[in-house]
Amino acid sequence: MKEMIDACRRFFELPEEEKKEFHTKNLLDPIKCGTSFNVAIDKVRLWRDYLKVIAHPKFNSLYKPAGYSEVSLEFSKRTRAVATEILNGISESLGLEADYITKVMNWHRGCQILAANYYPACPQPDLAIGIPPHTDHGLVTLLIQNDMCGLEVKHNDQWVLVNAAPGAFIVNYKSIWHRATVNNTATRISIAVPHGPALDTPAVPIPELLEKEGEKAKYIGMTYEKFMELQASPAAYMMPCLDHLRVKDN
Ligand code: OGA
Ligand code: NI
């Protein structure tokens, strides 16, 4: 985990000129980096650089900085193994076979993204935000950080700081509303690893569970690719993306 954070730090610290080749725009480009900013939103500035590399089903990597490729391969494999165990546990906790979710989600072709965030110390942290409130796409996100906190989740209408133990994985498996704040003391680096179904696989409420509970589905199904597009669209900005999928009561 430390080596992965180090490798990402070395990437972000490359001269701007050397990162330009990865400044692409499409959602599913295998490698992309940039600085997010949106001067239109409420007097608040986004204060973050990001690097997103798709590591599964096809492993992509960077040839610089030296060492990134090797460590990200190892990190992505081990992180995926942890995510697999968590999904197996969730399946079992729902009274399903351990491999239920991984089977129906075509996990062997599942999408894994190494999404690194770089938040430099900010002179006026109250006027900036690292990442505005959002929900993650995917089945389970594992997040690590360089022992600097900043992730906040909405709980009982309050923003609550996630005070993770050093070296811990923060696991996000519910569609929770969260954001990242910035600080004025030191650079914070986090690596969020969303693990999703295969892109062409629709995620739907589990039919066996609906039947067991005698309930109708509360959400429509959608492929993971469409869901990711929806999440990135202006219509979904500052909106929990599951809200778009909720079946309207009639
Ligand atoms: C994300 C995210 C929070 C953080 O990348 O989706 O929520 O703590 N990051 O950097
Ligand atoms: Ni997130």
Structure description:
The protein has 250 residues and is of the alpha+beta class. The chain has a single domain (2-200), classed as B-lactam Antibiotic, Isopenicillin N Synthase, Chain (Jelly Rolls). It has helices at 2-12, 16-19, 68-93, 100-104, 207-213, 224-232; strands at residues 31-36, 45-46, 48-56, 112-119, 128-129, 131-134, 140-145, 151-155, 158-161, 170-172, 178-180, 188-195, 202-203, 222-223. Strands 1-3-4-12-7-10 form a six-stranded antiparallel β-sheet. A four-stranded antiparallel β-sheet has the order 6-11-8-9, with no helix packed on it. Helix 1 (2-12) crosses helix 3. It starts with a helix and ends in an 18-residue tail after the last helix. The model has no long low-confidence stretch (mean pLDDT 93). It binds N-oxalylglycine and nickel (II) ion. This is 1-aminocyclopropane-1-carboxylate oxidase-like protein. Belongs to the iron/ascorbate-dependent oxidoreductase family.
